[in-house]
Design a protein that fits this description.
The protein has a single domain, classed as Alpha-Beta Complex (Spore Coat Polysaccharide Biosynthesis Protein SpsA, Chain A). Strands 1, 4, 5, 6, 7, 10, 11 and 12 form an 8-stranded mixed beta sheet that branches. A two-stranded antiparallel ribbon has the order 2-3. Strands 8-9 form a two-stranded antiparallel sheet. The chain has 8 helices and 12 strands. By secondary structure, it is of the alpha/beta class. Helix 5 crosses helix 6. The structure holds cytidine-5'-triphosphate and the ligand C[C@](O)(CO)[C@H](O)COP(=O)(O)O. Cytidine-5'-triphosphate binds next to strand 1 and helix 3. This is 2-C-methyl-D-erythritol 4-phosphate cytidylyltransferase. Catalyzes the formation of 4-diphosphocytidyl-2-C-methyl-D-erythritol from CTP and 2-C-methyl-D-erythritol 4-phosphate (MEP). Pathway: Isoprenoid biosynthesis; isopentenyl diphosphate biosynthesis via DXP pathway; isopentenyl diphosphate from 1-deoxy-D-xylulose 5-phosphate: step 2/6.
Amino acid sequence: MGSFAVIFPAAGRSRRFGDASRKKIFHEVDGRAVWLRAVEPFVNREDVGQLILAIAPEDFELFDRRYKANAAFLGVTVVEGGAERFDTVAACLDRVDPGCDHVAVHDAARPFPAAGLIDLVFEAAREHGAALPGLAVSDTLKRAGPDGLVVETVPREGLYAVQTPQAFRLDLLRRAHENRPNLTAPVTDDAQLVEAIGHPCRIVAGSPYNIKITTKDDLRMAEAISRVLPRPRSGSGTAHPFADERAAWGEGPDS
Ligand SMILES: Nc1ccn([C@@H]2O[C@H](COP(=O)(O)OP(=O)(O)OP(=O)(O)O)[C@@H](O)[C@H]2O)c(=O)n1
Ligand SMILES: C[C@](O)(CO)[C@H](O)COP(=O)(O)O
């Protein structure tokens, strides 16, 4: 079985979060920092060989003071991130151990990646080379102009809101990142780079609980989610609480 290096981009600026005193990944949800919650479900997995967390240069002092011991205990390598998310991931790709043949990228701002969801993504990445979780869009979609007036209704068939972790064969993701200078559109996830070099990416069923903290409202939602999700089972062998949810998601995006 191949081994996954897991990259956690945590070097963002939290602009949309709107708290100049503390970035979103350092806020706590039910007493645990968002970044710790994002990392812990990947710790102690037999299929994970390396954990790499990328933080912004201005956060090293705070991180060392408050979280150095956590990172050491979890076996996390801490590196410096870049100006854009894809720069951060590229910097981490340079640090992947030679023993890893796959890589997963999971936003440090997503505190609830369930074990079952990670299993699905990793299995599909081994089979297809590239995999990511997604939720079929269930609201009606409108495109509007800057004046707020609707221009059109966008058919939602075949549209997914995608999440992380996104997982890839290592050589494929490296090639995809090398091709970045040839793209003109804004790049918002790693799968987009892989799509651009012509490799199909497989969507598996995401989870509505696997939210990304973007605004303060998301943090309030995360607090609510932490109250309804099951607690970790003792002796489960991982720090991850949500191993029983897999059945609820099904095996693919359509189930
Ligand atoms: N240069 C960057 C930009 C983003 N990220 C990370 O990528 C994830 C998703 O990005 P996003 O939610 O946009 O976070 P921020 O960039 O911090 O938010 P904002 O765009 O509001 O400033 C986050 O874990 C963030 O820390 C990163 O590692 N390096
Ligand atoms: C990678 C991602 O979380 C997938 O939904 C998302 O694209 C990140 O976007 P952001 O604009 O950097 O928050």
